[in-house]
Design a protein that fits this description.
Layout lengths: L13 H4 L2 H14 L3 E4 L2 H4 L9 E5 L2 E8 L8 H14 L3 E6 L5 H10 L2 E4 L1 H8 L26 H30 L3 H19 L2 H8 L13 H21 L4
Parallel strand pairs: 3-4, 4-5
Antiparallel strand pairs: 1-2, 2-3
Length: 257
Amino acid sequence: MHGLKNVSHRHDDALSRIGWADLERLLATYYREVGWWVEHAGTGGTGAKFDGGVDLRIRRDAEVVLVQCKHWNAKQVPHNAVHELLGLMVNEGATGAVLVSSGEFTRAAIDAAQRHGHVKLVDGETLRGMLGPLAEPEPPPDAAPAKPARPVRPRTNSLLWLVALVGAIGFVLIVRTVLHRTADTAVEPSEDTRRAPMARTADASYEESLPAPVAQAVAAPAVAMPPPRPPTEAEIRESQRKADEAMRLIADDTPEL
C-alpha cells in the first residue's frame, strides 16, 4: 500500500478487528436478508487463493450486481479500484457494482464513481449502519502466548575470553603433569626396596644351612649395648704414668748406635 493516503479517521471497533473473510460473510448475510440471491465468490467463501476481483455476486430479478470488499482501516481506497470494478462489470455483463470499504475513499475514487454512475461506493460509516453493532471477535484458539523478550547480554571482548581459555588449559596441563610425576615417584620402588627381598632370601637360605643352635643365635635379634663410659681424670693420669714408665724402660734397654 505504498503511496496510498491515510484515512482521516481510523475506526477502532469490532468491525475494524474482524478478518476480511468474516467481512465477506457478514455482507453475504446482509444481502440475503434484504432479498438478494448471493453467490459468495470471494476467497472467504470458496477457499481459493484468488477471487478475480469479485467477492459476491448478487441477483434479484433482472439485476446482476458485483460486490467487491476492501477491508482497509488505515488507507483510503483509490480511484483505481473503481476503474477495475467497472472493467469486471463489463466483462461479466453485470448491471451494476458495489465497492465496499471499511474505511474511506479518496476524492478521486468518489468522483470516478459519480462520473460513470454504475458503481456504488459504501464507505465505513455506511457499512457500519448496514451491519449494525457487532460483537468483538474471539481470539483464535491456537494462538500461542507471546514469548518473553530475551534479555540482551552485554558484549564481551572475544580476545579476553580466548586468553582466559588458554590460561585455564595451561593450568590444567601443569596440574596433571605434577600429579603424574608424584604418582610415579610414590609407586616406583627404590633400589634398596627392590634388593630387600633378595637379601632376605639369601639370609634365609644361609640360616637354613646352619645347625639349629647357631641358626637361632644368628636369627636372634642383636642386643643393644650400652654406650662406653668415659675415663675419669685419675684413670687418665694413671695411663699416662704407665706410658711414661714404659718409654723410660725402652730407652734404658736400647743401646746407643
